[in-house]
Amino acid sequence: MSISAPSRRMAPRGLLTSLPIRTQTRAFTSHPHRLADNDTQPPPSSRPNPFLAEYLRNNPSAPSTPAPPRQEDTLGDLPATSIFEDDRRAAQQAAAISARDASGGAKEMKHGMAGRNAQNMLRVTDPNPNARERFERKKVIQMVRKGGRLSKQEFVKKTEREHLVKSENFKTSVKKLGALARQIQGKRIDDAIAQMRFSRKKVAAEVLRQLEFARDEAVVMRGMGLGGVEVAQEAETLNASGEEVAGATETAAQTKKRDEPVEIQLKDGKRHTIENRSDIYIDQAWVGRGPYGQLPDYRARGRVFVMRTPWTSISLLLKEESTRVREYEEREAKRRRQRMEKVWVHLPDRPIQTKQQWYSW
């Protein structure tokens, strides 16, 4: 006998403790389909499959045996869903390719590109083939129209060297770093390094390291500041043919003339003497504003303000002194042309076209 929930609420507490608890037992009946001994039906693997039988009747050439089951994961092996499965598969492919190459069945892979598909890499190296073909066609048409002649900008890019370097962000403001940028702009790289070495500014040490890095990178990557080593080597090379000897002698004369000191006038009017045209100088130096940081500013009465600390970077454009000589010669040629245009010359004799006493236009 069981007491329902409403009766349990209405019955007093003592009655509940004094009433006996009776449990109703029920005989356990076994289920034949759950017991292996009472299961008279064949296992699912041995039962005939009507769909498979119909498929085999329609396709006599199909194999009657089913596909082998998927190989289970062994102990200590990676599962199929592991993120390292692709790497292992690539390693297996590379090993198979190397074994096949060793046996002479395939061509040798270049640059260790085992396991890579060139068609898939084209999506990254050449994402828009049509645009690339149009660009190449446009450049070929331009070359044919110009007859192989280069523009002034292209000629300067091919004959002169320059290097652009941008530094990381320094913990300083634009106002403080801009003063140092104006100080080193226009100076030779060695003079700028000397200026930063003896500067009392805190950020001058960072600018000094950036200048040394830019100088070394320009020498290694662009070959700047080498002093015409290639031309001197060509001049010293004397072959058996007379034409090459004459050419080498002419190159040596040009090198000697180029190594002579030359005095030029800069844009600001100052006189500047250039002893070696391959020396590196800072053509431009500018600063760029970076992100702002946050620092606590503890004040009176338990207040805390947030200070915005600025970060700034500096960019340097390095060129050789030969560029400064060319710019000076171009300014002088332009000044001479303007001066000649202002000089008065005698008007040429013109025949009278009409009968008036004055010229008609």
From TrEMBL:
UniProt-listed GO biological process terms: translation
Keywords: Ribonucleoprotein, Ribosomal protein
Highest rank taxon of the organism: Eukaryota
Pfam families: Ribosomal_L22
Region (Disordered): 1-77, 240-259
Species the sequence originates in: Saxophila tyrrhenica
UniProt lineage: Eukaryota, Fungi, Dikarya, Ascomycota, Pezizomycotina
Gene coding for it: mrpl22
Biased composition (Low complexity): 240-254
Protein name: 39S ribosomal protein L22, mitochondrial
